[in-house]
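Can anyone check this?
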Amino acid sequence: MKPQTPIDSGSNMFLTGAILLANFDFNGLTDYALKAVIGGAIWMTFRLASDYLSNKIKK
């Protein structure tokens, strides 16, 4: 009977993550995140202004 080695899923996940992130473009991701935050802030400003004006017109 051969001794069985336990499967270490943590190291398998680390290896998979390292391979997937090896060629990841972090500069592009940072640029996209910055644009998303700015776009979300602009959208939120217009949404709040729309709600404010809508409530003001109803009264």
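Reply from J.R.: I decoded it. Helices lie at 9-22, 26-58.
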